[in-house]
């Protein structure tokens, strides 16, 4: 699949020439984006909402075998049903965002509340049929958070920085990686010292407590482009193809 994708990229996404690349805008450095409080809140939400998934993947198999005597096929199929509510969560969030775009922060907060409640329910499950229900809730909540907050990152860059998105989505990937890097290391130690139930309660509490922090983003949709690097770029007059196009759009 990767080889096929690479061949398609070579055929369809031809590399830019040096002249075209020289006319492209320079994005805001990643370290400056990371200290933007709005971007930091979104990055924290992305990391926190993925912690339950990252921490359960290396620990739930042993817990299922010890607590409910789960068979190998049950352990192997544990996460399969959760795929469908994840897709449903993406679809629902896209439709809601199209109808009520000013509530993106609320969709993310609701997703974190669902993740928190579902994480707390996992230790109470006693068989395979029961355990897939909170796992579906976790994946549904993650879909809400990701689908609502990733576009918010792009909007924040548009209104507060230069409209170049590579660095801000690198921050999103870093947030995911933090959760998944800690999972195999921290989760196993917590289960060993404190127990599986305490692990899930802690993850659920972290998500529930972080959800109100997203209130900080409630006025993001009302932001207008400030006197930022993006505006300075446009006000200096067109210097290249990109700037000329943006100037014409602005006049229009």
TrEMBL record:
> Record keywords: Cell inner membrane included?
no
* Entry-linked SUPFAM superfamilies: MFS general substrate transporter
Any one biological process term the GO annotation gives: chemical synaptic transmission
The way it spans or sits in the membrane comes to: Multi-pass membrane protein
Subcellular location field:
Membrane
Read off the InterPro entries from this record: MFS_trans_sf, MFS_Vesicular_Transporter
Which molecular function term from Gene Ontology is one that the record holds?
acetylcholine transmembrane transporter activity
Keyword annotations for this protein, in alphabetical order, are: Glycoprotein, Membrane, Neurotransmitter transport, Signal, Transmembrane, Transmembrane helix, Transport
Keyword Membrane, does the record have it?
yes
One GO CC term of this entry?
Answer: AP-2 adaptor complex
Q: Could you tell me the superkingdom of the organism this chain comes from? A: Eukaryota
Extent of the signal sequence: 1-19
Please list every transmembrane segment annotated in the UniProt record, as residue ranges: 38-56, 77-98, 104-124, 131-156, 168-187, 199-217
Put simply, this protein is called VACHA protein
Q: Source species, please?
A: Eurystomus gularis
């Amino acid at each position: 699949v990767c080889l096929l994708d690479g061949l398609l990229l070579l055929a369809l996404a031809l590399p830019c020439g040096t002249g075209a690349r020289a006319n492209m805008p320079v994005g805001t450095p990643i370290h400056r984006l990371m200290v933007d409080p709005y971007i930091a809140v979104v990055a924290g939400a992305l990391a926190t909402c993925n912690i339950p998934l990252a921490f359960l993947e290396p620990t739930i198999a042993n817990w299922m075998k010890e607590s409910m005597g789960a068979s190998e096929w049950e352990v192997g199929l544990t996460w399969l049903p959760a795929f469908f509510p994840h897709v449903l969560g993406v679809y629902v969030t896209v439709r809601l965002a199209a109808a009520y775009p000013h509530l993106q922060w609320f969709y993310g907060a609701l997703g974190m509340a669902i993740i928190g409640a579902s994480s707390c329910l996992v230790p109470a499950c006693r068989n395979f049929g029961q355990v897939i229900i909170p796992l579906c809730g976790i994946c549904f909540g993650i879909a809400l958070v990701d689908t609502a907050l990733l576009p918010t990152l792009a909007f924040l860059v548009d209104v507060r920085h230069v409209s170049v998105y590579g660095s801000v989505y690198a921050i999103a990937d870093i947030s995911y990686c933090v959760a998944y890097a800690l999972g195999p290391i921290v989760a196993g130690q917590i289960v060993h010292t404190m127990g599986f139930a305490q692990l899930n309660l802690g993850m659920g509490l972290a998500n529930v407590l972080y959800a109100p922090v997203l209130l900080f983003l409630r006025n993001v949709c009302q932001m207008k482009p400030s006197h930022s690097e993006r505006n300075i770029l446009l006000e200096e007059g067109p210097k290249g193809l990109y700037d000329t196009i943006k100037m014409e759009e602005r006049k229009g």
